[in-house]
Specification:
With about 375 residues, the protein is an all-alpha fold. The chain has twelve helices and two strands.
Length: about 375
Amino acid sequence: MFYDFFVGVVMQFLSGVGSSVGAVRARVADKIDDWRADLLEGGSGVKFLLALLFVALFSSAILGVLWSAEPEVFSVRDALALQSAQAKNAGKPLTGVATTTTLIRVSGTLLEKTGGFISNDIAPPGVWMDNIPNWEYGVLIQTRDLSKAMREAFSRSQSQSTEDSDLALAESRFNFDSESWAVPASESEYREGIKFLNSYLRRLTDADLHNAQFYARADNLRYWLSTVETRLGSLSQRLSASVGQRRLNTDLAGEERATRSTAAPAELMIKTPWSEIDDVFYEARGSAWALLHFLKAVEVDFADTLAKKNARVSLQQIIRELEATQEVVYSPVILNGSGFGLLANHSLVMASYISRANAAIIDLRELLSQG
């Protein structure tokens, strides 16, 4: 008898739950029918949502256009004069101040330009953009290379000397992932790097302190230029691959007994996917923008070294080639015409300037190596 009573209670409960679920399901179905009818008849609610969506998309498009503006080339000497005025140093700028100040200004531009740092955005319009994030990556690569050279070469008198603690911390911050948007965000890490660079600059310009140095020697400059050479060589190859070519494998050329870990074909087909052509172009453009400023700063700090080697004009020629990479792009898209066709190929034009600058850097390194 108890069993029959328990089964009856359970069945009543389940029937009540079933009726409740059915009622909820019916109300949801009625609501969906109302929305469908409102959508088909063009009701006020649907019109409001469509208008709101249009305003959001239009605003994102306008912001995207504004944020796509690349920063202008700034005057390194003006930035140096401003820093000297703030430091109340009316005399000749100390060695290393131009390079450090320019590195701070270039890295700060990544965070302070129109739209701020976009590479790690997860909301419109930044999440839809790709040209400026690739431009930022090119600038960031050059910033990382120079901060590494400052830690390993410019600030050390010899290989056994102690590295500068602020420069070591700055380098590690600039090597943080550029697409991290939280805990920590990329911007916060890069601001920390700028803070450590400013700390190094304060110690460098303080006459009472002797724990920060910048050595403008030919071997230090050659060390950094060797890194620049490999970066530009890689960019030139990637830009040239926009049209696609069959290239002979020259990896082991010049060494009779050279070996490799795995076999590779004697001929390679190299072609950049069409969806990445503008990415490579803007990465090269950003890299050239940063390098242009760094070389102008090096011209100031290494003036005596360059004059001794009669190499200043070689450096100025490199700067001139890089200035050409910053000309206005009038086309709304990066064109990829083939060979001598009707349409231009922006990647090949950029590759030409990058290759000439790279060849001049090789010549400059040779000049600096001579006694």
